[in-house]
């Protein structure tokens, strides 16, 4: 799994592009991911429309709609520096503090 790391410093408190991706129609199934540290809100747009959003600091993108170019946007505060990890594989849902997938209230197994 190839991963690129880059630093991004926000110039404003508006959405700023941190990655863009075009997928060939012959490889429409390919998914990628972006993770930020510290976590900031992320969104994916294609043709100017928001197709996905996340407040968790990571987001998956790609697939069929990427043949029209996906752009990943992040929102932070002016001067805030983040580390952006761009991976060639999607991120599975991260466990909550209780060790369970997000949205479940079952206790973790010992």
CATH architecture: Sandwich
User: How many separate structural domains?
Assistant: 1
Beta strand %: over 45%
In total, the number of strands is 8
State mean pLDDT (0 to 100 scale): 86
Helix content: under 10%
- What's the oligomerization state? single chain
**Shape type:** globular
Instruction: Compute the CA-based radius of gyration.
Output: 15 Å
Major sheet summary line: 4 strands, antiparallel
Kindly identify the CATH topology.
Jelly Rolls
Instruction: Give the low-confidence spans.
Output: 100-104, 106-110
Count of DSSP-assigned helices:
0
CATH top level? Mainly Beta
The main sheet orders its strands as 1-8-3-6
Structural class: mainly beta
* Elements, N to C (H/E): EEEEEEEE
* Separation, N- and C-terminal Cα atoms: 31 Å
Give a topology summary:
Blueprint lengths: L2 E7 L5 E7 L9 E7 L4 E5 L2 E6 L3 E5 L7 E6 L5 E7 L23
Antiparallel strand pairs: 1-8, 2-7, 3-6, 3-8, 4-5, 4-7
Which properties best describe this structure?
mainly beta, Jelly Rolls, four-stranded antiparallel beta sheet, globular, disordered C terminus
Task: Describe the model.
The chain has strands at 3-9, 15-21, 31-37, 42-46, 49-54, 58-62, 70-75, 81-87. By secondary structure, it is mainly β. The strands form 2 sheets. It has a 4-stranded antiparallel beta sheet, with no helix packed on it. Strands 2-7-4-5 form a 4-stranded antiparallel beta sheet, with no helix packed on it. The relative contact order is 0.31.
């Amino acid at each position: 799994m190839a991963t690129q790391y880059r630093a991004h410093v926000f110039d404003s408190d508006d959405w700023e592009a941190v990655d863009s991706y075009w997928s060939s129609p012959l490889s429409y199934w390919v998914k990628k991911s972006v993770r930020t540290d510290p976590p900031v809100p992320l969104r994916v747009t294609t043709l100017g429309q928001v197709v996905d959003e996340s407040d968790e600091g990571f987001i998956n993108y790609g697939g069929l709609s990427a043949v029209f170019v996906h752009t990943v946007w992040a929102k932070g505060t002016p001067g805030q520096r983040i580390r952006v990890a761009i991976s060639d594989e999607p991120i599975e849902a991260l466990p909550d503090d209780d060790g369970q997938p997000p949205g479940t209230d079952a206790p973790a197994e010992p």
